[in-house]
Design goal:
- There is one protein chain.
- The chain is mainly β.
- It has two domains: 85 residues, Sandwich (Immunoglobulin-like); 81 residues, Sandwich (Immunoglobulin-like).
- Helices cover 0% and strands 57% of the residues.
- The protein contains no helices and 15 strands.
- Strands 10, 11, 13, 14 and 15 form a five-stranded antiparallel sheet that branches.
- It is elongated, with a radius of gyration of 25 Å.
- The termini are far apart.
- 16% of the residues are buried.
């Protein structure tokens, strides 16, 4: 028994994801099941069945990872993974996923001398991006702009004593959030 393919398609354009597993050496004892995940969260987990195909109703546009499992009468198992992208072209009747809200809480911490660390209280996935704007209190334009990177914290050396705050920008999963820190005092 060997999985030779996993066909994935939206049958009616409404998010009805059909999953069909092709197996070489299947017989009457062969059983099939599928797991579907979106953004690392399981949205469908099927029970083993005799038919090599099933359908599940997707809720939103997006990328789905489908894992097919096959078991024979002797308990031997195989698995196969494929990706399905539900787009406006493949699934025109399916709703766009709502942006998942996340919070941003900036924190300024004194390191030593004029060095300060700019960070966030929250933890973010590794693919997130961060940018930092540093402002002198009472001045509307940022004095420093640290561009987007995958670093969830930044260090800055202040040359002049004064009152400052910073604004943190976070891009996570295509969504952007920002927030300003409390005003902090730099003494040299």
């Amino acid at each position: 028994m060997n999985i030779t393919g996993l066909d994935l398609f939206d049958l009616y354009g409404d998010g009805t994801l059909v999953m069909k597993t092709a197996v070489d050496g299947a017989d009457a004892s062969t059983r099939y099941t599928w797991y579907v995940k979106q953004n690392g969260k399981t949205v469908y987990k099927g029970a083993y069945q005799r038919d090599p195909f099933t359908a599940v109703q997707l809720e939103h546009l997006g990328t789905y990872v489908v894992k097919a499992f096959v078991r024979d009468g002797e308990g031997n198992k195989q698995e196969f993974e494929a990706t399905f992208s539900a787009t406006r072209r493949t699934s025109p009747k399916l709703a766009q996923a709502e942006a998942e809200a996340f919070s941003v809480t900036p924190v300024a911490s004194h390191v030593s001398g004029g060095f300060w660390q700019l960070s966030l209280e929250e933890s973010f996935p590794p693919e997130s991006k961060f940018a930092w704007y540093i402002y002198q209190d009472g001045v509307s334009d940022p004095m420093v702009k640290i561009p987007y990177s995958h670093e969830s914290k930044a260090f800055y050396k202040f040359e002049t004593a004064g009152r400052y705050y910073f604004k943190a920008f976070v891009i996570q999963g295509g969504n952007k959030q920002s927030a300003s820190s409390e005003v902090f005092t730099v003494t040299l």
